[in-house]
Amino acid sequence: MRLSDFWRLMDDEFGAHYSRSLAGDLVIGELGDRTALDALRAGIDPRRVWEAVCTVQDVPRERWLGRDLKPRARSRAE
Which Pfam family, any one of them, does this sequence belong to (predicted)? Predict the structure, then answer.
């Protein structure tokens, strides 16, 4: 998972403002008693960090992959 995907999932699930606060404040035991931000800075895979956040926040498993995004409509110029 790319870091940009991690933040998209965080923003979709928790909202753009709360996701940043949550990532910087919530200490997660599964990540070595680190916040999500500290874990990412330490080089822990964003997918592992995302799954740890989901677990501790009781996000239903069906939302772990994020919301379904419709494909972008292609213009005639493409």
Answer: DUF3046
